[in-house]
């Protein structure tokens, strides 16, 4: 079996990689360079060398590369160099950078006579990240009902046997559909919408939303996240990106994490906002407190 080496770049991501049948630091090689009888053309000069060595057991291969904090890595493989990179097989996906600055993993040695590998580095771009501790993060409220409204501050809400008296992870600030009035329980005819600041997805084709929530909502009421136009507020997707489960259980209101939720194709190539829409009437009648959110993050790649 020959292990071959190549580097390649794609779009704004570096997709270099290398493989050798013996341990060798490819970062020291000029570009283009050769290894044995194989020629590799480097289309990106910033190499993230992928070292491949045969495991001591003789049946596996050890992969090692220098990693960058915050980046994630995938390894693609193919037995056919002429194949477009999009058609290569993903053998490792979403490997996070190790704290040591060097990643290692072991894969089974392939049976094919020749196998090529590419290391793909992906650097996430944080478009929105807030824990609401310093301020309300520029979130805005649109109120369509006559009941409770989204409020920013410290929850002081009490339900039937449960309570929400902090943000996520015992923090001090969050957004909630009524933080203290009537024990934080939402009123009849509550239709209140909480919008993020503008999230500019003009130059991205992949992004995801994560947030924390505490939910104490009657069965017929809805707590949903929508994708909307940044200026008009019109829905860009009819269906919600996320629908929190209404909670018939009086005994649960703990904070929990949601996502990452991949944004739909209609989100990209433009500025957008996300909207947390709560519609409810069953709060005060049955001691339900509503919907509380914290730690909102949108990350693009
Ligand atoms: Ca918080």
Description:
It is a single chain. This protein is mostly beta strands and 301 residues long. It folds into two domains: 2-123, Immunoglobulin-like; 126-300, Jelly Rolls. It has one helix at residues 283-286; strands spanning 2-3, 9-10, 13-14, 33-35, 38-40, 50-54, 60-66, 72-78, 89-96, 102-108, 114-122, 125-130, 140-143, 150-153, 157-158, 163-164, 174-177, 190-195, 199-200, 207-216, 222-229, 242-244, 255-262, 271-280, 290-300. Strands 12, 14, 17, 20, 23 and 25 form a six-stranded antiparallel beta sheet that branches. A hairpin with a 5-residue loop joins β6 (50-54) and β7. The model is unreliable at 1-47 (pLDDT under 50). Calcium ion binds at residues 131-133, 167-168, 171, 173-174, 294.
């Amino acid at each position: 079996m020959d292990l071959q080496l190549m580097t390649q770049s794609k779009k704004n991501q570096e997709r270099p990689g290398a493989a050798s049948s013996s341990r060798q630091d490819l970062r020291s090689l000029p570009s283009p360079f050769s290894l044995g009888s194989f020629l590799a053309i480097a289309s990106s000069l910033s190499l993230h060398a992928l070292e491949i060595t045969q495991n001591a057991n003789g049946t596996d291969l050890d992969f090692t590369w220098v990693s960058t904090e915050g980046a994630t890595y995938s390894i693609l493989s193919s037995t056919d160099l002429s194949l477009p990179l999009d058609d290569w097989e993903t053998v490792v996906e979403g490997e996070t950078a190790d704290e040591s600055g060097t990643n290692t993993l072991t894969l089974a040695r392939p049976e094919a006579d020749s196998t090529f590998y590419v290391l793909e580095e992906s650097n996430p771009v944080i478009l929105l990240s807030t824990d609401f501790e310093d301020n309300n993060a520029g979130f805005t409220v649109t109120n369509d009902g006559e009941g409770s409204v989204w409020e920013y501050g410290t929850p002081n809400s009490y339900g039937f046997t449960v309570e929400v008296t902090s943000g996520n992870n015992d923090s001090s600030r969050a957004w909630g559909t009524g933080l203290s009035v009537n024990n934080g329980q939402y009123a009849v005819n509550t239709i209140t919408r909480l919008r993020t600041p503008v999230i500019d997805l003009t130059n991205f084709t992949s992004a995801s939303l994560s947030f924390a929530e505490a939910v104490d909502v009657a069965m017929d009421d809805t707590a949903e996240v929508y994708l909307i136009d940044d200026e008009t507020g019109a829905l860009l997707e009819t269906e919600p990106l996320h629908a929190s489960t209404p909670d018939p259980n009086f005994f649960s209101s703990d904070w929990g994490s949601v996502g990452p939720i991949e944004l739909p194709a209609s989100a990209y190539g433009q500025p957008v906002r996300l909207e947390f829409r709560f519609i409810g009437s069953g709060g005060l009648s049955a001691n339900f407190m509503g919907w509380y959110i914290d730690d909102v993050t949108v990350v693009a790649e």
